[in-house]
Design goal:
The structure is a single chain. The protein has about 130 residues and is an alpha/beta fold. The protein has a single domain (about 5-125), classed as Transcription Regulator spoIIAA, CATH 3.30.750. It is about 35% helix and about 35% strand. Helix 1 packs parallel to helix 2. The longest helix has 19 residues, at about 70-85. The chain is globular and about 40 Å long.
């Protein structure tokens, strides 16, 4: 499976999806013009990945900010991960947030309450 590597822009996060290592990363700001268009290749890739995932999938999400339409798309990504987890695969989501960013911590906790995948809240201390 080909990895997906997307460089960050002022409106979109950096994305790295690597089936071989089982490491998925989303980092930066997510305020694309069209969130569905931006996230669709990620969701499609995860659908393929779910057919034959590695033993342990590690997801690192480190967003500074995301808009409402991105939040729905991020949820779609997490739902794909949930199906991998439900198929008895090891999945962990590391949700990174700045120490003073209560909103981002709360957003991670909201996702954690919706998605049945282990979340780890990771505080970034400068």
């Amino acid at each position: 499976m080909e990895p997906i590597i997307i460089e960050s822009t002022t409106k979109t996060p950096a994305v790295r999806l690597d089936a071989e290592s089982g490491i998925l990363e989303i980092k930066g700001r997510s305020i694309p013009e069209n969130s569905i268009e931006f996230y669709k290749p990620l969701v499609d890739w995860l659908e393929d990945y779910a057919k034959d995932p590695v033993k342990r999938t590690q997801v690192n999400v480190q967003l500074e900010y995301f808009n409402t339409s991105s939040s729905k798309c991020i949820l779609d990504v997490f739902k794909k991960l949930e199906s991998i987890y439900k198929a008895k695969n090891d999945v962990i989501i590391n949700w990174y947030y700045e120490e003073d960013d209560e909103d981002m911590l709360e957003a991670g906790e909201d996702y954690e309450s919706i998605i049945r995948v282990p979340f780890k809240m990771v505080e970034i201390v400068d």
